[in-house]
Design a protein that fits this description.
The chain is α/β, with parallel strands linked by helices and 263 residues long. The protein has one domain. It is 33% helix and 16% strand. Strands 1, 3, 5, 6, 7, 8, 9 and 10 form an eight-stranded mixed beta sheet that branches. A two-stranded antiparallel ribbon has the order 2-4. Helix 4 packs across helix 5 and helix 5 packs parallel to helix 6.
């Protein structure tokens, strides 16, 4: 399976791109096919890996480089025990206000630990992987970063991975990473608020809704909203029998809840 179809065409166009921050003229990846790995374990029995591209890093350590044309192709392996107050965010392409206020909008560790306690999932892996929100060189994501993340997932015995992008560009980045991880034999689910982008990149499984960049896993300090997004996306992972994308039914329920003052 080609992770990026027509990668030479992308690379040629990428060389001519003028590296503008608004992505004008950027040669977004377009794929037709997607890899697919069936689920082999039920949610309550698996070790779930979390991959976020909000640019999280531990305060006092080196932040992601947001100035390079290629982007920062490194990753941070962060223990889930690290407190929210100890995380900083190298943000480009999204407003970090929401994630600074409540990390669960992009790094939903607290919500997923609730699911672990209630046996919705078997366990949340003891580290999560943090990627930069600004990696324009998609070819290097496919060739370098994606395989590194896939290797780490296998090293930790991950049986399914949840990917949560933060910006428009990192919807592409994590779509590519999802393709690599899935192609390596680990099923994935990508949450999206930009279905047009995910349809172009074609991650194996995606769940989308009318949300916002920077708070893709739900609105800040709204636990029920976050749980609703995560619950439906996670439960769908078992039901896909081929690559595809489905719309989450969170919007109407959230409007009703807000109107009743039940937030």
């Amino acid at each position: 399976m080609q992770i990026i179809e027509k990668v030479d065409t992308f690379s040629d166009r990428f060389k001519r791109w003028n590296s503008n921050e608004d992505l004008r003229g950027y040669p977004f990846v377009e794929n037709v096919h997607a890899p697919f790995t069936p689920f082999r374990r039920a949610l309550p029995m698996l070790n779930l890996g979390l991959i976020s591209s909000a640019g999280a890093y531990i305060e006092g350590t080196e932040p992601f480089d947001l100035s390079s044309k290629d982007g920062d192709l490194g990753y941070r392996e962060i223990p889930i025990e690290v407190e929210s107050a100890d995380l900083q965010y190298a943000a480009k392409g999204y407003d970090p206000t929401a994630v600074i206020e409540d990390r669960n909008v992009q790094v939903p560790i607290d919500r997923l630990l609730e699911y672990q306690t209630s046996f919705v999932i078997g366990s949340l892996n003891n580290v999560f992987w943090s990627l930069s929100s600004w990696i324009p060189n998609a070819a290097k994501v496919a060739e370098e970063l994606g395989p590194q993340i896939a290797e780490r997932c296998h090293r930790y015995g991950i049986q399914a991975a949840l990917l949560i992008p933060a910006s428009r560009l990192c919807h592409q980045t994590l779509g590519i990473v999802a393709r690599v991880v899935e192609d390596s034999g680990i099923p994935t689910m990508t949450i999206s608020v930009d279905p047009g982008m995910t349809d172009r990149v074609r991650p194996p499984r995606s769940a989308y809704y009318n949300g916002e960049f920077g708070s893709v896993a739900g609105k800040p300090n709204w636990r029920e909203y976050q749980l609703r997004v995560l619950d439906e996306a996670l439960r769908w992972t078992e039901t896909f029998d081929q690559p595809g994308s489905r719309k989450l039914a969170v919007d109407l329920e959230t409007q009703v809840e807000a109107a009743r003052g039940e937030r």
